[in-house]
Amino acid sequence: MSIFYTKEHEWIKVVGDKGTIGISTYAADQLGDITFVELPEVGDEIEKGEIFCSVESVKAASDIYAPMSGVITDINDELESAPETVNDSAEDTGWIAKITIIDIDEEELLTTEEYDAYIETLD
Amino acid sequence: MSKMLFEKSVEGRKGVSLPAMDVPAVDMPANLKRNKLAEIGEYSELDVVRHYTNLSLKNFSVDTHFYPLGSCTMKYNPKVCETVARFDGLAAIHPMMPVSGGLDMCQGALELIYELENHLSEVTGMSATTLQPLAGAHGEMLGIMLIASYHRAKGNKKKYVIVPDSSHGTNPATASMMGYEIITVKTADYGDMDLDEFKEKMNDEVAAVMMTNPNTLGVFNPYIKEISEVAHAHDAMLYYDGANLNAILGKVRPGDLGFDVVHVNLHKTYATPHGSGGPGAGPVGCSAKLEPFLPQPRVVKTGDKFSLNYDKENPRITSYFGNYGVLVKAYTYALMMGSDGLKDVAEKAVLNANYIMQKLKPYYDLPYDKTCMHECVFSASRQVEKGVHALDIAKGLIDRGFHPPTVYFPLIVPEAMMIEPTETESKQTMDEFIDAMIEIAGIVDTDPDSLHHAPVTRPVTRLDETQAARQVNVRYQKDA
Amino acid sequence: MKFTPHTAQEVAEMLGTIGVSEIDDLFAPIPAELKTEGLDLPKGISEPEAVRQLKKLSGKNKADMTCFLGGGVYDHFIPSAVDAISSRPEFYTAYTPYQPEASQGTLQALYEFQTMMCEMTGMEASNASMYDGGTALAEAALMALRISKKRNKIVIDSSVNPVHKKIVETYLSFLDAEVIDVVYGSGESVEKYIDGTVAGFLFQNPAFDGTVQDFTDIVAKVQADKSVAVASVYPISLGAVKSPGEMGFDVAVGDGQSLGNPLSFGGPYFGFMTTTKKHIRNLPGRITGKTVDTEGRDGYVLTLQAREQHIRRAKATSNICSNQSLCAMNGLFYMALMGSKGLEDVAALCKSKAEYAKEKLAELDGVSVVNDGITFNEFVIELPVNASEVCAKTAKNSILAGIPFGHYVEGAENKLLVAITEQRTKEEIDSLVSEIGGAI
Known about the structure:
- Chain A is built from four helices and nine strands, in the order βββαβββββααβα.
- Chain A has 123 residues and is an alpha+beta fold.
- In chain A, the strands form two sheets. Chain A has a six-stranded antiparallel beta sheet with strand order 1-2-3-9-8-5. In chain A, strands 4-6-7 form a three-stranded antiparallel beta sheet, with no helix packed on it.
- In chain A, a hairpin with a 3-residue loop joins strand 6 (51-57) and strand 7 (61-65).
- Chain A is globular and about 35 Å long.
- Chain B is of the alpha/beta class.
- In chain B, helix 9 (324-360) crosses helix 12.
- Chain B starts with 44 loop residues before the first helix and ends in a 10-residue tail after the last helix.
- With 440 residues, chain C is an alpha/beta fold.
- Chain C has helices spanning 8-18, 23-26, 47-59, 80-86, 89-92, 104-121, 133-148, 162-172, 216-224, 244-247, 309-312, 325-362, 387-396, 426-439; strands at residues 66-67, 125-126, 153-156, 178-181, 198-205, 228-233, 251-255, 271-275, 288-292, 298-302, 368-369, 378-382, 399-400, 403-404, 415-419.
- In chain C, helix 12 (325-362) packs across helix 14.
- Chains B and C meet through helix 1, helix 2, helix 3, helix 4 and helix 5 of B and helix 1, helix 3, helix 4, helix 5 and helix 6 of C.
């Protein structure tokens, strides 16, 4: 298992050719109280670097970019009624979608250490 | 909190008496008939009048409170405009009245359109104006449409629209609605679109540059002529967002600055009421190059007769001639102002804004410290160090009987407070507002927490916007 | 007449505070060579002069006609209380309710408006109004494109007002979208376009020629194909006619003029848009929502703002910013005064009087009713002569007989679109019939 982050603040946990995607704790904190997660549909094909869903708070909306290309196999539909789960546990129970990865491509992705260093440079 | 109207319904009450049926009653056939009546309730006329009169008392408005909402130009709305807009000859005429065939039944209505268009063309320095757009953003849409039509007719391949990062949200939203991609240019130290970055980003695929001048920081762009030349060299059109036109009336005209399209917010500059959010009116003026693409119908004058010209190829953006009742009010205002009055509007609006800016400067941070036009933008960053945000200051003002300025806009100023007093406010009113702002600045030092609880004088305290967005409830339900 | 209160002394004091010697110094940021010499406009006039001038213009319009014009705008009765309430400056001189604690009046009124529009259309969610009926339909087409994401076709049924069709086409003509127009009188059904590629189907009920239909079956077929079904409706008809909700539509739009807004030569009116819970986040425009304050009391705010231009900028659901609050409130006050029963009564009066007019007109030699289905309060008649000429003749006797149908449909020069509201008495309808009889 390995975890990668993007500079747009998504994370992907990779096990074999399966990936779980969400937004980082940092991103969730920045957005504030999350009010809505626009989930993708199972079966959707997503492409690395492309927007595939979005997250809304009261005063902001943020697009979610696919960290790797793949096909959606599962979505966290609990977020429909409880979007605050993303605030409570962005990198665990607040996951957004699971995919079958088409191409394990780590280019431009950051490791946990690299991401932590990256967010230090922000603000 | 007030009860819902629906909770006051009593079966059998009537608020209106209708004439009796004087022809045989005929019902809709069963297969086309509504099964369940709309549940509106039943009320007496007094029930309805009292319910809504009491609701109205929960509002701040220009007639009751100072309302320095930046960028929204909450000036006084002259009462005579309300009177004339209700004249039968203007309010009780159907838009499909015959205009031709020697009938001449609405020559006055068409004349008003024709004259107001000419008036606005002169004020903006444009070659033609249409009054059809129903709001500022609708005008923006038409403006970008005219530009897109021009490029399309010329065979120009255009993909982008440039907007400064200080722009109104409607600018990028409009350009994107018209199929363009957005290029954003940062604001330079002098308070407007960075000239060097603009030149760097300008290219032959840019369709338009959308500018607000003076911009949302209240700054007049010193390089506007150069921007216009650079844009035109690439056959890009320069768009003037007229939200702030009130600052330059009779002083300088967008057309003379090189702008090709202008929209005017009559509900701002021409003092027509905002009506709790609308109706507005967003006439669009354009240069001769764009005139052929204006939407149908156009009012034309032949001799001393007015008629309508429907060019079937041209776009339609609304069913008739625009928000006519609003246009009547704006025209009346335009007549009363005249060339001298319009100039006076700009002068006093700018005088008032600079007066407030000067008086509050010692107490709040002013990120762009220079002579402003019709509005000034402070930042609450100094107060944030004590834990008080722009929102808290806004709510504190509500408790002191003032509508707050626009907060958190423009986006490029952290903790922005955008103050636009408008020209119709007196020195006395502004002094009271200034005193309240200074008092609040003092409380930030002595009792910052009290501002977190403001307002305490209204029917409600702060509302939970997160709950509103999570558990969406947009209509009353009896059993809920 | 000026509305600036400053005395010369106050101006001097203020300039002193600012630290400049004259007002012109404040305009120094504008390069001198760009400044205008002065506007080529007359000088301002006094209030009584302005009133006189407007009275003169108003007098050039014939407002005392007996009106049988419709086409989407109708001469309905407006109770005096409507204008009395909306003339309260607390409503008409307020702005968009950005500060909810200082705007609970507007916000609760709009929440009640949304509730009533949901009730009228039989839908679950409403926004706080749009510009007008035509642009609301165009926004509904854009909404259908957003919902279906990858599809880019919009099909417009022959029932839709051709002017509204043109507005939809205009809105969509700059996007990667295709509009398929099912032409009035072509006899074509939209059904053949249900092929898995269409984002949305737009219908109007009653159709612009007045014919009322039950779209339930076609709506089901459209939805089975994952397209969005949109109905454009005339709210007064909803006191009698099956609602969009009862037919299963996804989105209902329309023009609210008939609900308490004066004719006013075409505006301001308001558009409305209602939908199902499922699509609420795809609605354009302002939406009012109910919530609680820090003390747990009920209150109202603008909600779901993350859809809107001031937050999402280029990615907003629409560029729309203003709504037509005051006109929507006129609609609210009108519906409240009429009540459920009154709205049903108005619809019954319209329908019955129109049936009477239709029957009497059809008795005239050479005149026939064109609609082959049921109508509500508007219908098309075929005349033996040019309809515009007939209208010119009846107008001389103060009757606006209808809208020549050729305005909408090419080759329909002898057809006339006639609308009857509860305002028209039996006597007036009888005069219409005799005037038309005399003119042909």
